[in-house]
Write a structure and sequence with these properties.
The chain is mainly alpha-helical. Helices cover 56% and strands 6% of the residues. The chain is built from 13 helices and 5 strands. It has helices spanning 17-30, 42-45, 52-68, 84-93, 98-101, 105-117, 125-139, 153-170, 214-222, 237-248, 252-263, 269-295, 298-327, and strands spanning 4-9, 35-40, 76-78, 145-147, 179-181. The protein has a 3-stranded parallel β-sheet with strand order 1-2-3. A two-stranded parallel ribbon has the order 4-5. α4 (84-93) crosses α7. It is globular. It starts with a strand and ends in a 5-residue tail after the last helix. The relative contact order is 0.15. The mean pLDDT is 96. The chain binds adenosine-5'-diphosphate (ADP). Adenosine-5'-diphosphate binds next to β1 and α1.
Length: 332
Amino acid sequence: MKKTVLSCIQPTGEMHYGNYLGAVKNWVDLQEKYDCFYGVVDYHAITMPYKTKKLREDTWSLIFNLLAVGVKAENLFIQSLVPEHAELGWIFNNFASYGRVQKMTQFKDKSRDSTTKSKDNFISVGLFDYPVLQAADILIYKADYVPVGKDQDQHLELTREIASRFNNQVGKEYFVMPETLHTESPKILSPADPTRKMSKSAGEKHYISVFAEEARIRKQIRSAVTDTGEESDDMSAGLVNLFTLLKGAGADGVHDSLMKDYQNGDLKYVNLKDATADALVAMSNGFREKRAELLADKKEIKYKIKQSSRAIRERAQQTLKEVKDLTGLMNV
Ligand code: ADP
């Protein structure tokens, strides 16, 4: 039996190089070997202030973006077309420790962004609870592996705790413990502020879109912060980030030669920035071309994704049925 892989991404704005190099690149590679489920999680996207009219547009746009970078249609689903995630999430609320959920650092970061995005300092209960829904996303497919960035390690730990409490309660090793899979670049930093991660929710200058035009990429890389002013023998976080982007974009040879320059003390920052911009531009141009091709078949592709969501839903329904039997809830 093939092992199962699950991972998700929120339809909140554009896909950036943190998402791609930290997680989605792995999604593509793992498709050969495993049974893969990849979700565009719109139930998660509504945990932050958002525009109702834009959500569906963003959801479809992310689907086309994922297809353009190489994710297969049959592995993709839209979360709200599989509402069993939300039902299992509710059940899991009762197996998740309140004290533990309170410790999630993502909630602390995102609640700060939520208050700046709303007019009345709003933070939703959904935002607090989203790691529990995430546990349902993972366990509903009984995933063995979860390819995500480093920012998700704490949530995976919580998922395992929920699974284990559930197993204890029902007296059976029903859920397997899912493991995290990281890429070689599990944490990409913001080019404008390398003390924080690259993220959509932090604002435009903090992420580089995978589908950005050449001029924008060059501008963002040219103005990337390389020194934070602190004296240290270690390479600065901003430089590490440029090297990581360069390697992630597949320019291994240039990367190694510039790294040698750095070690010899004669790296010119402008050379590193130019090489990184060249590599990202080449990659983004390829992705943009592919996306344009896919957009020509918009209707057919949307139909395909609804079909794949329906097929994937059957797997989720089976798990939920078993969970309801095990927990004493009713099945029709
Ligand atoms: P965001 O944090 O921008 O809202 P998502 O929560 O939708 O993005 O994350 C989708 C995937 O991308 C997750 O697997 C997450 O771990 C990964 N990811 C997000 N930001 C980064 C980053 N800066 N570096 C590495 N991986 C990241």
